[in-house]
Amino acid sequence: MNSASEVGSLLTYEATADLETEKVTIEGWNGPVEIDQIKGKKITVVPILRAGLGMMEGVLENVRARVSA
To answer: In CA terms, which of 2, 9, 12, 38 is 20 to 30 Å from 65?
Structure first.
């Protein structure tokens, strides 16, 4: 992990620390799994220019989600 990724990870942690979560059961490869999910929110992450692209790795480590290109 490079410095930009670490900064992205720390910023994401602080930005999402106050968001409420809820327990959700999803179907995993080995049966049902209970996870925490951000309650009622859909997060969109948009990197700004090249500086933001370097932070995306750290952001995606903290916010497990579907990635669309």
So the answer is: 2
